[in-house]
Amino acid sequence: MTQTTKASTRAEKAYQIIEEMIVTLELAPGTIFSETTLGEQLGVGRTPLREALKKMTSEQLVVPIARRGIMVVEINISDQIQLLETRRVLDRLIVQRAAKRATMNERETFQRLGNAIFESAANENLKEYIQADYEFDQLIMQVANNRFASNAVAPLHVHSRRFWHAYQQYGDWLQIAKNHQALAGSLANGDKVEAGNHSDELIDYLLAFTKSILEEV
């Protein structure tokens, strides 16, 4: 492994750790932290940490605050609606490609992850739900093999997971889990038409859920 590859791997690992902290609200919206303190807390070097935070800045997860540090971006419900409208187009493209290209092993994994999402929702285990949902999204993007679409949609999924974590008490866990399970089934069956339809149904639910939050908060 070259030095460049090692540095890239360290930056990716740092990104994954901080992403989870943001998604699970361990780093809550509006939190301001310093690179030095966070690096020491996580045991992450200065260079990979900066690379991870640079990526997060471009994805609008964090923003530098002059002479104060780095701030976790607040959750904006109106922005979430626009985000989901964008996700609809990209998600549909990606799931249809994944349904067409998946190998037998990948189809079986789609089904397993769909079931895991449903079971974690039924048990109200948010941590397992978030992890299974993350793995599901990652596999879809990997199998679809369209790096332009995947690079565009990945941060939107991060924002969506954080939004659900923040407001999940207003949502219907089993309904969203059923949406995921139906999508997983169509991917497992290699049915691109059904995959596109189930992707749209998932976004329809998330949009309705998001709009309902406007009436609650």
Beta-sheet strand percentage? Answer: under 5%
Average pLDDT for all residues? 92
Cα distance spanning the termini: 50 Å
Provide a count of the helices. 9
Major β-sheet, in short?
A: 3 strands, antiparallel
Helical fraction equals over 70%
Strand segment tally: 3
| CATH fold-level label of the largest domain | Four Helix Bundle (Hemerythrin (Met), subunit A)
State the gist of this model.
The chain is mostly helical and 217 residues long. The chain has two domains: 70 residues, Orthogonal Bundle (Arc Repressor Mutant, subunit A), CATH 1.10.10.10; 140 residues, Four Helix Bundle (Hemerythrin (Met), subunit A).
Describe this structure in words.
- This protein has 217 residues and is mainly α.
- It has two domains: 3-72, Arc Repressor Mutant, subunit A (Orthogonal Bundle); 77-216, GntR ligand-binding domain-like (Four Helix Bundle (Hemerythrin (Met), subunit A)).
- It is 77% helix and 5% strand.
- The chain has nine helices and three strands, in the order H-E-H-H-E-E-H-H-H-H-H-H.
- It has helices at 3-23, 35-42, 46-58, 77-101, 104-122, 126-144, 147-167, 173-188, 192-216, and strands at residues 32-33, 62-65, 69-72.
- It has a three-stranded antiparallel sheet.
- Strand 2 (62-65) and strand 3 (69-72) form a beta hairpin.
- The model is unreliable at 1-5 (pLDDT under 50).
